[in-house]
Design goal:
Blueprint lengths: L1 H21 L5 H23 L11 H10 L1 H15 L1
Helix pairs in contact: 2-3, 3-4
Organism: Paenibacillus campinasensis
Protein name: Pro-sigmaK processing inhibitor BofA
Keywords: Membrane, Transmembrane, Transmembrane helix
């Protein structure tokens, strides 16, 4: 099972590298990715420590930051809604 997972990881990494060089994306996407990552973390930090939602604390982990990176600020609202609904 581990060998199969390693094979899938290697194939996906090779395909990702192929796409980057085929489309000639350059390194500009790294800057955009870093900016989205930083803004997602700042957004979650602001919600957690300003008291906008006093009863909800959203941890800063890869899943929550990834959700906010993909969905933007509505992702923060989604996480707050899930936290309040499921645990409140």
């Amino acid at each position: 099972m581990k060998l199969m997972m390693l094979g899938v990881l290697c194939v996906s990494l090779l395909l990702l590298i192929y796409i980057i060089f085929k489309k000639r994306l350059g390194m500009g996407w790294v800057t955009v990715f870093g900016a989205h990552l930083a803004l997602a973390a700042v957004g979650l930090y602001v919600v957690n420590f300003t008291g906008l939602a006093a009863e909800a604390y959203i941890p800063l982990n890869p899943m929550t930051i990834g959700t906010v990176m993909v969905l933007g600020l509505p992702g923060v609202a989604l996480l707050l809604g899930l936290k309040i609904t499921l645990l409140g």
